[in-house]
Each structure stands twice: as C-alpha cells, then as structure tokens.
Specification:
It catalyses: ATP + H2O = ADP + phosphate + H(+). With 540 residues, the chain is α/β, with parallel strands linked by helices. It contains 21 helices and 14 strands. It folds into two domains: 113-349, 3-Layer(aba) Sandwich (Rossmann fold), CATH 3.40.50.300; 359-517, Rossmann fold (3-Layer(aba) Sandwich). α11 (251-256) links the parallel β4 and β5 (266-269). It binds adenosine-5'-triphosphate (ATP).
Length: 540
C-alpha cells in the first residue's frame, strides 16, 4: 500500500494537528494533501456532536497534559534509557536562580527527587529490557500493588490478578499500563506470549466505569474471530465482580443487532463485522474513548486498511486514546502510526521483530513434499509430545494432511476458514481440553491464540514471511514456559531460508553456516505452489 493512500486512510476522521506535525506530514505524504476531514460532508447532527466533542477534547487534553507531568518521572527520548534530565531540568535550574534561599533548597530537593525517580525508572527499564521513545514517559510499574498506590486502582482488580495467578507484571505490562493510564497513546511491540492482552485490558477496566450509559466506551479490534472471542473471555475473567458489559461482535449481532438499545462498555470485534454494524445497523461509536488495534500489523496487512480507516473515522471522539499492539511492528506501520497518533510513545520489549527466546527453533531439510510427510511421521513415531500445532499454507492442504494423519494413530483435528464458527471454536476447545493432540491449522490461528502449554509448533509448510514465522512459532513458549519449533523446508523454500534463519540467529538458536551464506532476499513474501500432500506414489 502506498504511503499516501494509507496515511490518507488513517487520517480520515482523526483529530490531526497539521501545524504541529508539519515536518512529519511532509515526509510521509508525497501526493496532494489529503483532507483530514471525513470523505463525505458531516450531517448537522454530526457537527453538533463534534463541537461538543472538541470542547470535551480540550478539557481532556489539559487533563492529559497535567497527568503526564504528574506521572512522568523521566523525560527519556529514543533508546537512551540513561539520558539525563531534559526540559524540566532547565526549568528547575532557572527556578533556583530566581528564588530566595528557602525556595532554593526546595527546588534542589525536588530536583534530587526527580533525578532519583528517573534513575529508578531507567534501572527498571534496563532490567526488563524495555526500550522507549517519546517525551515524558511514565515510569514502569514495580509491582501490580503499585496500581493501587499510584493510580487508585480498585482493589477487586488487583485481587482478580492474583486469583488468575498473575503476581508480577510482565515487562510490556510494566510499561504499557502506566502509559495508557496517563492518557497517552502508544504502539507496543513485545514478544509473543508476553502478556500484551492484559497490558491493554487492565487500563480499560481501570478507566471505564462498569455499566455506564451513553454508548460504547472501548473498542478492541482483532484480526480473527477466534482471537476476538479469546479477548472477550480474558476481559471477563479480569473484570469478574463488576458488572461490565463486555461484548463480542458475532455475525448475528453485526447483521441484526439493535445497537440503539444495546448496553456495551467494551466491544471486541474483527474489522469487517464492526464496519458492517456501523454502516448497516447504525452502530454509533462517537463515545468510544479507547481504541485498541491488537495484532496491528496484521490488521493493516490484511487488505483491511479501508475498513480500519472507516472504523477509525467512526470513533470520532477527538480525545480518543489509540494504541497498537503486536509482536511484530514493521517500520512502515510504525512510521505511519507516528504521523497520526498524538504524541505517541513507542515501547519495545527485547529486540524488535524477534521470536521469543523461550522457543528452541530447528530447521529441517525435507527435500520434497513427500519427504515432509515422511519426516512428520518419523518425528511422531520417535516422540509425540502433545499438544502440537502444525501449520500449513492453505485450507486445501490442511484437509489433505488431516486425511493422511487420520490413518495414523494420532488424535488430530483441523481448523481452517471453510469451517463454520462453531466448528472452528470446537477445534480450538478440543486442543485446549486435551481431546485432540495435534491441531492442523492455517494462518487463522497463527496470531494471538493462547493455547496453554503447546509443546511444539511444526511449520509443515514454510511460512510466507519472517513475521508469519514469529507469530506461528509463538503459539508455544508462552507465559514463561519453554517450547519447540520445527520448520521443514524443501528445495523450493531455499531462496527464502535466510530470512527465517536470521530470526533464529537473533534469538540465539544455531543455524548451519551454509544457510547464513545464502543471499539475502529483498522480496518479503514467499508462497510456493506445492504438490498435494499424499502418500499415493507418483506415476513416474
Ligand atoms: N503478569 C502475568 N503473569 C503470568 N502470566 C501472565 C501474565 N500476564 C499474562 N499472562 C499469561 O500469559 C499468556 C500470554 O499472554 P497473551 O496472550 O496476552 O500474550 P501476547 O503477548 O498477547 O501474545 P501474542 O503476541 O501471541 O498475541 C496468557 O496465558 C496469559 O494468561
């Protein structure tokens, strides 16, 4: 997608301060200046809502600025976590010169306190491998209890965390939660299975009053229905004890919901279903205060940009807080996100776009398609350590492999886009409950799905990109557990091998030197026409 098209799509309906971001805007927009206004003229009703929205936004902006100052214990820019004081430093220095002796010592005390806070935040970030870019970044959390002392979090929520077995925040939670609670926008990149879901759910539950009237308060967009359903489940567990209306946008709701009478605090949906509800069923998203794009790079990649744009436009509250979360954040998405978000903070945990270090990764040369089937059977005979996930590149191939494994003594199940919603959910549930040992899957469950204790991911078909690889293998090695990932490759996959090998190397796994000597491929996507999966011998 061209930069100009995407930025125009993303700008629509947003409150964008062009003067302030003039330089960035010049950089990212090469064509004629897109209108930041909605593509069609707003109705008088819309205008009225926007007007009152703007007044509210001004008030909220002031509040946000105050909160940012109050909560910021440092002013770190870029990746230099030990950078010293910036603007505030000068302020304090001049304060010292202008005032009398008592005030002078107060200023010195304040300054020292601030320096200590900055240092503490920097030490925490270094310890948890958190890298940030942005102004006045709130300090990371030391513990969940700090949510009570620092942000007045309701103790039921901290109690729920403890009941769910979450005793310490993960690195992304330590940094993203204070940022969102301070009313700042962010884009966050942290490894698969590192607790990003809680990092955006917790601030929503702290900020939104349960059962509030006046429309939807938060929208979470996910690329697949399964992930949306999982996010609703997680949110309900976390909110237990409070009467939140947490809704999943199902097919039926999207097609025939009566949204005027619907109570909803938090709405989780895939982009298409939400867009349908907005356009065909008059779902009003003007009151949305938080918009989360989970697996954000996938949302943009799916060819959904227009749909995302339409949803962003529908969420017209000018003081909305947007956040993007993913384990992979391509530079192009990050650059565009910077131009549309208000003073957004970037958070990266560990190395950007890398696999979880908890996964032992292996590349296996299988020669041909037949070779892959033999290698799979052999590895099952040697050791089958369920649950195992097997990824293939298409639904046809998922059905073929399922048929083959049906002959073996392996409890296998399959999930792909041809199955209906219930069948897909059953396949996921069966693996979770241990009823099936092996789940053959297409890309539909590669993103975000949290299966407890998946021991091994097998890339039967080579993934089409490094990002796809990172997300697929990230279904194992979650929440501190270790996992294994095996990737078969054939002659046809060799040209793309180096891209995946780089991911292995950057997470500390061994790769034969001949693979690292292969030329780097500029092309980002790799999709091969493969022979069908079958044990019936070829005729020649
Ligand atoms: N603070 C915590 N302590 C222990 N476990 C946690 C904590 N936070 C989250 N988890 C658990 O970690 C697992 C992974 O979390 P989650 O699904 O949010 O990962 P993610 O970072 O979104 O991964 P992905 O990139 O694959 O979507 C879940 O089972 C979740 O319950």
């Amino acid at each position: 997608m061209e930069n100009s098209k995407l930025s125009s799509a993303l700008f629509a309906g947003t409150h964008f301060n062009r003067k302030r971001f003039a330089a960035d805007f010049e950089r990212f927009h090469q064509g004629p200046t897109p209108s930041p206004a909605a593509p069609c003229a707003p109705s008088p009703e819309k205008k009225r809502k926007r007007k009152s929205g703007k007044a509210k936004a001004k008030k909220n902006q002031k509040k946000r600025a105050e909160a940012a100052i109050a909560s910021s214990s440092d002013a770190v820019e870029g990746f230099n976590v030990f950078k010293g004081l910036t603007g505030k430093d000068d302020e304090l220095r001049s304060e010292k010169v202008d005032t009398g002796k008592d005030e002078d010592s107060v200023a010195v005390r304040r300054r020292k306190e601030m320096e200590r806070e900055i240092e503490r935040a920097a030490v925490l970030r270094k310890r948890f491998d958190i890298h940030i870019a942005g102004q006045n970044v709130p300090a990371p959390l030391e513990s969940f209890e700090e949510l009570i002392s620092r942000y007045g979090c309701d103790s039921y929520l901290v109690g729920n965390l403890s009941k769910l077995g979450f005793h310490e925040p993960t690195p992304i939670q330590r940094q993203a939660i204070p940022i969102l609670l301070s009313g700042r926008e962010c884009f966050a990149c942290a490894p698969t299975g590192s607790g990003k879901t809680l990092a955006f759910l917790l601030p929503l539950l702290m900020k939104i009053k349960p059962g509030s009237k006046g429309g939807v308060k938060a929208v979470i967009l996910c690329p697949t229905r399964e992930l949306a359903a999982q996010t609703v489940r997680e949110c309900k567990k976390l909110a237990k004890g409070r009467k939140y209306y947490i809704k999943l946008m199902t097919k039926d709701l999207s097609k025939s919901g009566n949204f005027k009478d619907m109570h909803c605090d938090i709405l989780v949906s895939t982009p298409l279903r939400l867009d349908h509800a907005v356009k065909k069923r008059d779902l009003d998203l003007n009151s949305v205060e938080y918009l989360v794009l989970d697996e954000s790079d996938k949302l943009f990649e799916l060819g959904f940009v227009e749909v995302i744009d339409s949803v962003v436009e529908a969420c017209s509250n000018p003081s909305i807080i947007r956040s993007l979360f993913s384990a992979t954040l391509p530079d192009s998405i990050e650059a565009l996100a910077r131009t549309i978000m208000h003073d957004a903070i970037r958070i990266i945990v560990g190395r950007k776009n890398s696999a979880s270090s908890l996964i032992k990764q292996k590349l296996i040369f299988a020669g041909t398609e037949r070779g892959k089937l033999l290698a799979l059977r052999q590895s099952f005979q040697e050791s089958l350590n369920p649950p195992v996930l097997i990824f293939v590149q298409s639904k046809e191939r998922a059905k073929e492999l399922y048929k083959e494994l049906a002959f073996d003594d392996v409890r296998a199940d399959v999930i792909h886009a041809d199955l209906n919603e219930q069948q897909r959910q059953d396949a996921v549930d069966n693996l979770r409950a241990g009823k099936s040992w092996v789940l053959i899957a297409t890309e539909v469950i590669a993103r975000g799905m949290d299966f407890k204790g998946v021991n091994c991911v097998i890339n039967y078909d080579f993934p089409e990109s490094a990002a796809a690889y990172i997300h697929r293998i990230g279904r194992s090695g979650r929440a501190g557990r270790s996992g294994e990932a095996i990737t078969f490759f054939t002659e046809e996959d060799k040209p793309f091998l180096r891209n995946i090998a780089n991911v292995l190397v950057s997470s500390g796994c061994e790769v034969p030197s001949w693979i690292m000597a292969l030329p780097k491929l500029k092309r980002k996507k790799h999709r091969v026409d493969r022979d069908p999966i079958s044990t019936i011998p070829d005729e020649d």
